[in-house]
Amino acid sequence: MNTDVIIVANPNSGNVVTERMITDKDGNASRLGVIQVQQKALTGTSIVGGVSKRTAFITLNEEALEFVDDYLVDGGVWPQEGRLAIEETLKPWVSKDGKKRQDPKINPSTQEVITYQGKPVYRNTFFTTDLNVKDIFLKESKSQATDAVTE
To answer: pLDDT tens-digit profile of 109-122?
Structure first.
């Protein structure tokens, strides 16, 4: 199975890089680029498994954008070897201004919020060059004891 990290164009704009301008506390502006990437991964156990498509976003400063510019095409392979890893946590992502907050995981069958130790679970997918990084899933056991599962 091909496990390359693939660059994906923004479905709304068609652009591979979504540009953002940020201003630091001293008023200096700089350009950042956000790139969507995807990777297929095997899921499940050795007896029953499947394939999932993972999506993450990589943010680069202007210098790094220029460095990888030749690779930034829709459907192209990300120029660094790596993988998209999953980490589930009990702490949501919140924007610096506090106006945007990450939504918790939802069970697609019941539309209920997934919890661990009675708290909502938040799922983050990120790019890493460390191929040995394990996924971390929070999972309630049938006996109501709690487990953090790595795969």
So the answer is: 999 999 999 999 99
